[in-house]
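Entry for the shared binder. Reason: the reviewer on the internal report wants the predicted structure included alongside the sequence.
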Amino acid sequence: MLKALLFFVALVAVAGIGGCAYLQHPKFGPSMDSIRNAAVLASPNYVDGLYRFSTVLVLRINSNNGAVAMATHIISEKSLR
């Protein structure tokens, strides 16, 4: 029983360390330095403590035609404001 408990604790520790190492991968980027943080705070997209990304219209190929897809996007975009 003690060996199983130690194995479980070691497994959780290795998973936690691995997760922290993975999140520091360049794909996610390291923690922001003060210069980058100042640039984000000065951005016009940073409002009320939240960073709002500019939207990109992506028309998906599905049963709707392009006009219906664009109208759906515009309606859903207005509901987010």
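Summary line for the report: Strands lie at 46-47, 50-51.
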